[in-house]
Amino acid sequence: MDAFEYRNKTLFCEDVRIDDIISQVGTPAYIYSKKAILTRYHELETAFQDVDTTICFSVKSNSNLSICKILAEEGSGFDVVSGGELFRAIKAGGDPSRIVFAGVGKMDREIKYAIENDIFMFNVESVAELEHINKLAGEADKTPRVALRINPDIDANTHAKTTTGKKENKFGIDLSEAEKIIKQSARYSNVDLCGLHVHLGSPIYTVDPYVRALRKILALIQNCRNEGLDIEYINIGGGYCISYTGTGEKVIRPKDYASKILPLVKEMQCNLIMEPGRFIMGNSGVLISQVIYTKETIHGKKFVICDAAMNDLIRPALYDAFHRIWPVNTSIKMPEVENPDKTEVKKGLELVDIVGPVCESSDTFATYRALPKVKEGDLLSIFSAGAYGFTMSSSYNSRPRPCEVLVDGDQFRIIRKRETYEDLVRGEEV
Question: Which residues are catalytic?
Fold first, then answer.
């Protein structure tokens, strides 16, 4: 999985042994590879270099200040969906003029904060929101850029809870309503309506949904220009797939997306904005957990109970998401590809459920998973956890959130301290 590999029967991140890190920081712990982050960012940058492209990293995927700083120093912009994310992006060194603000429910105080900081662009999701931005911009005597987020009613064939481009979803403006806004654009004199935005969900494993969406938008762009609106920017969102099942899984790469998307962008004569998150961070991080107990029922079912839980990584509980899990130290080679729908119990493996200690049946990372035999104290690596891991974590069951660690070559450092019990009650009164 990118910068994570087994050497001499133990897992490394870049040139650092995982168990050496854990001996100092404890578990659970998120561990990220700087090399993997930069590799993925530059892969996108290279693939789309034939047009003027602004990469805006999706802060919701991983909002750690050190991660954002790494990307800011490479020239990345940022995609934010709250005032807090905007604050984080700026604090990490992000250039406000390269920040886009998305989200269906921007509050007035967030809009004001973004206007004050002269962000690059708002992605507008409703007429009501456009009216608010127009009013607040007038009061501030500023003219922020806005892009209309279009809901093209396209099924991207991703999980029901992560699809965002169908007509029944809460996101965006349908094409007919967008046409009305364009014809009435003079009403919104305090904003610069100069872009269109479409985001279909995540992860998306084919290029086809992007192509279908852009073809629908082509006509809208021409209508905009006929009405005197100069559409300079097309934002294609994010959602680019990664492999969750192993290094041997063939998934489409940025160059494959670009080969189909760029001709349409060139036809539109627009500059391109994209909002990757998962693609950059997903396989750039792992969650390391320690086995607390093993338990076998009278019915022969075996559980591996670890110290990470759904509050640390909620994706399996929330999305039925598949994550590879393998011991940090083992003589048994991890298969190049695991099939989530077909478990193979080969020699040296046993069939187990890998679960956490939280009092919920959904606190389960894997069911009927073939795993090398482990014992109390062994370390497990949950792979592909760099995106939507820590950012979606909580202190449910009053469990302190884990630490975060960044590896750079043969060095590592803690980039977020492990929460303490005192952290859990900070701000409360009795």
Answer: 359
The secondary structure element, H or E, covering residue 384 is: none
- Its pTM stands at 0.94
pLDDT of 159 higher than 70: no
Q: Name the CATH superfamily for 34-280.
A: Alanine racemase (3.20.20.10)
Q: What is the mean pLDDT of residues 340-344?
A: 77
C-beta of residue 286 within 8 angstroms of C-beta of residue 345: no
* Topology of domain 4-32+282-419, CATH: Lyase, Ornithine Decarboxylase; Chain A, domain 1 (2.40.37)
Q: Where are the domains of the chain?
A: 4-32+282-419, 34-280
DSSP string, 92-103: TT--GGGEEE--
C-beta of residue 63 within 8 angstroms of C-beta of residue 88: yes
Q: Please, are residues 155 and 163 in contact by the beta-carbon 8 Å criterion? A: yes
Instruction: Report how far residue 142's alpha carbon sits from residue 305's, in angstroms, rounded to the nearest whole number.
Output: 56
Phi and psi torsions of 84, nearest 5°: -65, -40
